[in-house]
Amino acid sequence: MSKLQSPPCKERSRCMNFSEAVLIALMSLRANRMRSMLTLVGIVIGVMTVITVVSFISGLNDYVAQKIFNLGPDVFIYRHAGVTGDYVI
Questions:
Q1: Going along the chain, which residue ranges are E strands?
Q2: Is residue 26 part of a domain?
Q3: CA-CA distance, 30 to 41, in Å (whole number)?
């Protein structure tokens, strides 16, 4: 038996091939149209939300980095804060 073949079934009536599984899935989607559409809308809204938040955070990060860069090199002064080696801005 190669890696691409499925293991043989002991009871042939319980075996299902790929095309039969796809047919059953499509029939289930057709039978539950409203649930399928609501699930699709939920997934689309979720993906759009993630993309929007990531884009907003990236833009905000670029904005803050540009504002700090425009302040100049002599704005921040570092002092040694103690024995631990931590620095305070």
A1: 79-80, 87-88
A2: yes
A3: 16
Is there a contact between 89 and 76 (Cβ–Cβ < 8 Å)? yes
Mean pLDDT in the chain? Answer: 81
Give the total number of structural domains in the chain.
1
**Residue 59 identity:** G
Check residue 3 and give its pLDDT.
Answer: 56
The CA distance from 89 to 18, in Å, is 62
Does residue 78 lie within any of the structural domains? yes
- Range of 54's domain? 13-88
Q: Do residues 89 and 80 touch, judged by C-beta distance below 8 A? A: no
Angle between helices 33-71 and 18-31 (to 10 degrees): 90
Q: Give residue 81's identity as a one-letter amino acid code.
A: A
What are the pLDDT digits (tens) for 28-67?
989 999 999 999 999 999 999 999 999 999 999 999 988 8
Whole-model pTM: value is: 0.55
